[in-house]
Amino acid sequence: MSRADTAPLPIHRGQPLLRRRAFVEHLMGMPISLHVKAIDVHRDDIEAAARNAFAMLDRVNDIFSLWRDDSELARLQAGDVLAGECHPWQGEVMELALEAEEATEGRFSAWFGERAAYDPTGLVKGWAVDKAADFLRVVPGISFCLSAGGDLVVGAGPHLPGGAPAWLIGIQDPYAADGYAATVEVARGAVATSGSAARGAHVIDPRTGSPISRPGSATVVGPDLVWADIWATAAYVDPAGLADLLPRRAPSYHLSLL
Amino acid sequence: MRRITLWLMSTISALVLLFSYPTSTNSTTAASGADDSVEAAVTPNATTTPEATATPDGAATTDGSATSDATPSDATASDATPSDGSTSATDQSTPSDAGSTSDSATGTFAGDSVMTRWGAVQVQLTVKDGQITKSEVIQIPWDNPRDQQINSYAVPILNKEVVTSQTASIDMVSGATVTSVGYIQSLQSAIDQAHLA
After folding, report:
1. Half-sphere exposure of residue A193, counting CA atoms within 13 Å on the CB side?
2. Which of A27, A236, B60, B113 is positioned for an S-S bond with B54, CB 3.0–4.6 A?
């Protein structure tokens, strides 16, 4: 049902006027909001890409969810399945988890209690959203923002008239849920925020094994969501340490503490 | 008098210290967007909490809020060396516009431009009645394309007034994870509703 061939090209201040469309689904226990800007937001290929992105996240949930005991990861933890029989994503995520632990010098870890328990939940979301966003990055003439419960990727496909537009991202005030404490413009990149605001204490300090209960939040802006998310979590765990470590380890990622 | 000058200068020094890190490496770093605008504040809660200027290495020195009996500063900063004295920026800081007629410390104080490894950094504080009402980076490293590329990811604006003025045009929301249960009351939900086809 492409209407691009019938509608005249709308022009606004010398730029084609991009319309906007939102898709929202609930996956992995959280709202996934996909917003697309394009001249014609009802193109079939945009809808197909959106469906693929959501399906990808659904599949990740099947494999990695620890909120259900029939996921592959849950069965792997329980010893009901062997690592060699698992989806290749398991290896990919585990490798990333090792890398994250090394890069953050132990402030982020997927292992708890002397490596007794492996739980990569803290990075699976960012990793999955990056992957899902690939379905959108190949769609010509669109700009998009894909958010999973407050961690988001902004990107654009090829041949977008006027180039990739900036999205104004509001960073939620951790002390007032209905307000913004900061804004950041992103045309391509990722924004991740870690804090206790929404879920209560759900971030665990891997160095002590205890949940972090301090107020506030940490936001990281950078190229990829998986790393923005890892760094934001590590920064929430150890703000002072990360303010020092991040510019050395990952200078393209930038931290704001609120 | 001396106390507020000390405090202001040390706050400026703390801010300059902040910016001796690569841009946007901490809470108070902010810069402008792709244009060269430098409307960029560095303390989200500057109006009420001097503590917001704490630096990662703990160099911020806030000895409590400035008292309203502080008198306008005609003294130069040169005799007000913060006790930590940890940065050369400190003793170069001078109030650039302290000539307010108010009885309380009021004016705009700019630290000198300081060369860091990453380029020149300059911080300016606006003070009214002994309280910092605004703090801005008025010079940030933009010297080479790599800086610009890095800074293009590095621009959370924390200036309260700017953020408030932008609220209506915010496209998406980043925050601590929203669950499906809490979604309906979330800021993102309201934005989604406006664009659902």
Report:
1. 35
2. B60
